[in-house]
Amino acid sequence: MMSSGIFGIPRRHYDVTFSGSAFPFTFDPTAFLFLSAFAITAILAVIGGLLFILISFGSILFGERIEG
Predict the structure, then answer these.
(1) 30 Cβ partners below 8 Å, 6+ apart?
(2) How far is it, in rounded angstroms, from Cα 64 to Cα 45?
(3) Which segments within 1-68 are labelled E, that is strand?
(4) I want to staple 4 with a disulfide (CB 3.0 to 4.6 A). Which of 13, 27, 34, 59 is the partner?
(5) Taking the alpha carbons of 25, 31, 36, 42 in that order, is the dihedral positive or negative?
(6) How far apart are CA 62 and CA 54, in angstroms?
(7) Under a CB-based contact definition with an 8 Å cutoff, are residues 11 and 1 in contact?
(8) pLDDT, position 2
(9) How many angstroms separate the CA atoms of 9 and 32, rounded?
(10) In angstroms, rounded to a whole number, what is the distance separating the alpha carbons of residues 9 and 33?
(11) Rounded CA separation 17/50 (Å)
């Protein structure tokens, strides 16, 4: 996300290409490479968090009891 910001990609706007604006502006294609890499890693992070929760609760509910 920081590398996308270095290229000037706005973070809090739904359309980073400003497709309907009166004054068109184009970003360097490398900025979109970094933005898509961020999106892919964010999706992987969400999947990893969901797997952690599912495995944790699954082991609590269905796991073997450890006598200690």
Answers:
(1) 7
(2) 28
(3) none
(4) 34
(5) negative
(6) 11
(7) yes
(8) 82
(9) 9
(10) 11
(11) 31
